[in-house]
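Q: Here's a chain of 98 amino acids. Please give me its 3D structure as tokens.
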Amino acid sequence: MSRPQTSGSSASPSRFRPIARLIQDPDVTEVMVNNGTDIWVDRVGRPMLVGRLQPGQIEAIIERIISPLGLRLDRSSPIVDARLADGSRVCAVRQPLA
């Protein structure tokens, strides 16, 4: 997920908990979650593993991000690629495709 600006309601930092601090970090250009729990960031051009989510947390975060856009991520729609109002990109792929 490319780092969104926090000016619009769709990009409110509270929508992205627990990754909000990473999204607000000006040195982070991308936040990625792999395997549903591993949090990676691109900071100053280098990928770094920075933490882990609890199982199920990323699904809740994605739901909060994409539901206002009228999108969903489930078995019938396993891939989402969308732009938020501020221009940031959200891309998510559900298992088993991931």
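Q: Can you summarize the key feature?
A: The longest strand covers residues 28-34.
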